[in-house]
Write a structure and sequence with these properties.
The chain is built from 20 helices and 27 strands. The chain is an alpha/beta fold. Strands 16-18-19-14-13-20-21 form a seven-stranded mixed sheet, sandwiched between helices. A five-stranded parallel sheet has the order 10-9-8-11-12, sandwiched between helices. A five-stranded antiparallel sheet has the order 23-25-26-27-24, covered by helices on one side. Helix 2 packs antiparallel against helix 4, helix 3 packs antiparallel against helix 6 and helix 4 packs parallel to helix 5. 49% of the residues are buried. Belongs to the enoyl-CoA hydratase/isomerase family. Pfam families: Aldedh (PF00171), MaoC_dehydratas (PF01575).
Length: 687
């Protein structure tokens, strides 16, 4: 990916961070703004994007990156994500070393770096398992639009022809970019990453490792360090903008004239006053009480509380408020703050961030009292308390009737204990956050959990229910998972950064295609009922993937079903349901009116009709899908089966692929008695 060549704009200082645009590294013009080590206060680098042609960068992504990605199938893109994840895993120590300068402990760094790599690998796996080895995604089933079946429709999704512009926050300089890159790349859309300046040096290193690997196609990834400048002036209806940061900034970006004018897809993950709710059953001495306190302290101290998913509002039953406060105090008193190499909690990302947290704390203290910590003083181990951006964990106890706990987010190691007296009240309190990314309920009472989850769900993107059963394997309150939505309503931005395949489809256009079955088959590459079939003297099971075509079919039968067949199947399988064995009882059944064949007997007989028994390209049958029994089969009925090649999916890095067959079993009157898909593994080449 690129040749790694570097140019200087305007004779810049070598201390400036580089951007990677247009296929080469480039430094911005001027002296740039300083970026400091969060622990020592020493200058790490300077950052400037002055002189970088943002329009040209977007054009490069559209002209070079987009076409290169769209030539690849979903499976090929997934394989590249897997390779990239493996490559970055080998270079984690380089990222950890720089991550320490952001104030992160080793554990924090693993959370960021390993979490980001995990997203790549998760999307690689989902892409291979859930997406076709094709360049078009079929969304939903065929929609019949006419009585005769000659006019049908289906939704298809194709990659947008623009660039995914990704504006990231300072707190996760590795995970943040990778969680946006993965779904965009898998969709076939190039990315332009704009990291927050405070920690951009770590993102620059990440992109350097990616570029040097040569794994991704040129143009599929670009980086701009520094201000976004006029970047958004140049976005079009084919671009996507994803943002992580404050709600105020999200509102400004969302209302940008170019975004409004072209209805550009805009995804935001913004402020979030996440809550955790302790159930009334979780009294001191229970597993859930201990889990709640442990989780609360962890969320306050991991990444020094600089997580968009951290617990800001800790709701506890009023009768347990003092117990929780005391248990949390004891835990927090054991937390050491200082040099990330040895302390439990490191520094905030910058001195400016520390001052911002202190300002927010002052607002919170108008409605709460400090239970633990001193916002203005902290004992620091192995570092300078003033030169570094250190802050003590601060636990407050507040009044949930006041507005401040539900409106002010101190983005640091800060949480507020808030009492409640009933299930309905705590649900109402949770909703006062006006939209959150994540919430948790810690309880052993399943009924309480249900009431809270269903009551609070409209205000949350994700809810964790933690108890003694799932605690050992739970990923915790604050860990977004690539399989799930990472976003939330209202204040949280209204977006979804991940969300599994939904995150991929966010970067694609869903289009309804209306056509004849034959045309729809050609457009989608999936055989559509009503499209022509091709029958020849060669059984389709005798064809390798190289020879097989969508629409190839075999018609086999008829086979008459006898009473002896039904009785033997009942005895052989042990399925002696009365409709198959008791003539008098079966006659009373309003659906059958007499003995009928087992549905699975029908399927078995159909297989005996269409299977070609000799060894050959078909290696295995690995399942049936969408099976429906439509018309009862009675002794004396004759069956015919039509098997049609519906979809062909070669597997990457394997000498076989998957074939989906449409099976339609009909009776002598031509009525379908069973319909289903047969799934087989077929060799790519004939032996």
């Amino acid at each position: 990916m690129g040749n790694g060549a570097e140019s200087n704009a305007g004779g810049s200082s070598p201390g400036l961070l580089r951007s990677y645009v247009g296929g080469h590294w480039q430094r911005g013009a001027g002296d740039g703004a300083p970026v400091c080590d969060a622990v020592t206060g020493a200058e790490v680098a300077r950052v400037s994007s002055d002189g970088i042609d943002m329009a040209a960068a977007l054009d490069h992504g559209r002209r070079v990156g987009g076409p290169a990605l769209r030539e690849l199938t979903f499976h090929q893109r997934a394989a590249l994500l897997k390779a990239l994840g493996s490559h970055l895993r080998e270079h984690r120590d380089e990222l950890y070393a720089l991550s320490a300068r952001t104030g992160a402990t080793r554990g924090d760094s693993k959370f960021d770096v390993d979490g980001g790599i995990g997203v790549l690998l998760a999307y690689a796996s989902k892409g291979k398992r859930e997406l076709p080895n094709d360049t078009v995604y079929i969304d939903g089933e065929v929609e019949p639009l006419s009585k005769g079946g000659t006019f049908v429709a289906r939704h298809v999704a194709t990659p947008l022809r623009g660039v995914a512009v990704q504006i990231n926050a300072f707190n996760f300089p590795v995970w943040g970019p990778l969680e946006k890159l993965a779904p965009a790349f898998l969709a076939g859309m190039p990315s332009l990453i704009k990291p927050a300046s405070q920690t951009a040096y770590l993102t620059e290193k990440l992109v350097e490792l990616i570029v040097e690997s040569g794994i991704l196609p040129e143009g599929s990834l670009q980086l701009v360090c520094g201000s976004a400048g006029d970047l958004l002036d140049h976005v079009t209806e084919q671009d996507v903008v994803s943002f992580t940061g404050s709600a105020d900034t999200a509102r400004k970006l969302r209302s940008h004239p170019a975004i409004v004018r072209s209805a550009v897809r805009f995804n935001a993950e913004a402020d979030s006053l996440n809550c955790s709710i302790l159930g009334p059953d979780a009294t001191p001495g229970t597993a859930e009480f201990d889990l709640y306190v442990d989780q609360l302290v962890t969320e306050m101290t991991v990444k020094a509380g600089q997580k968009c998913t951290a617990i800001r509002r800790a709701f506890v039953p009023a009768a347990l408020l003092d117990d929780v406060a005391e248990a949390a105090r004891q835990r927090l008193a054991k937390v050491t703050v200082g040099d990330p190499a040895s302390a439990d909690m490191g520094a905030l990302a910058s001195l400016e961030q520390r001052e911002e947290v202190r300002r927010s704390l002052k607002a919170l203290q108008s409605a709460a009292t400090v239970v633990f910590g001193d916002p203005e003083h902290v004992e620091v181990a192995g570092a300078d308390a003033e030169r570094g951006a250190f802050l003590s964990p601060v636990l407050l106890s507040g009044d949930p009737a006041r507005a401040e706990p539900h409106e002010v987010e101190a983005f640091g190691p800060v949480s507020t204990l808030l009492p409640y007296t009933s299930t309905q009240q705590v649900v109402e309190f949770a909703a006062r956050g006006k939209g959150s990314l994540a919430g948790s309920v810690v309880t052993g009472d399943k009924e309480f959990a249900r009431e809270v989850v269903l009551g609070a769900a409209p205000w949350h993107g994700r809810l964790l229910v933690l108890d003694a059963d799932d605690a050992r394997e739970s990923t915790g309150h604050g860990s977004p998972m690539p399989q799930l939505v990472h976003g939330g309503p209202g204040r949280a931005g209204g977006g979804e950064e991940m969300g599994g395949i939904r995150g991929v489809l966010h970067h694609m256009q869903r289009t309804a295609v209306q056509a004849s079955p034959a045309v729809l088959t050609e457009v989608t590459g999936r055989w559509t009922q009503g499209a022509p079939r091709t029958t020849t003297d060669v059984h389709p099971f005798r064809k390798s993937l190289a020879e097989l075509r969508v629409g190839d079919a075999v018609v086999a039968g008829p086979r008459t079903v006898t009473a002896e067949d039904v009785a033997h199947f009942a005895e052989f399988t042990g399925d002696t349901f009365y409709a198959h064995t008791d003539e008098a009882a079966a006659a009373e059944n309003p659906l059958f009116g007499g003995i009928v064949a087992h549905g699975y007997l029908v399927v078995s007989l159909a297989a005996g009709l269409f299977v070609s028994p000799e060894p050959g390209p078909v290696l295995a049958n690995y399942g049936l899908e969408n099976l429906r029994f439509l018309t009862p089969v009675k002794p004396g009925d004759s069956l015919t089966v039509t098997l049609t090649c519906k979809q062909i999916t070669p597997r990457e890095n394997a000498d076989y692929g998957e074939v989906r067959w449409d099976a339609d079993v009909t009776n002598a009157d031509g009525d379908s008695v069973a319909k289903y898909d047969v799934l087989t593994l077929v060799a790519k080449e004939a032996a």
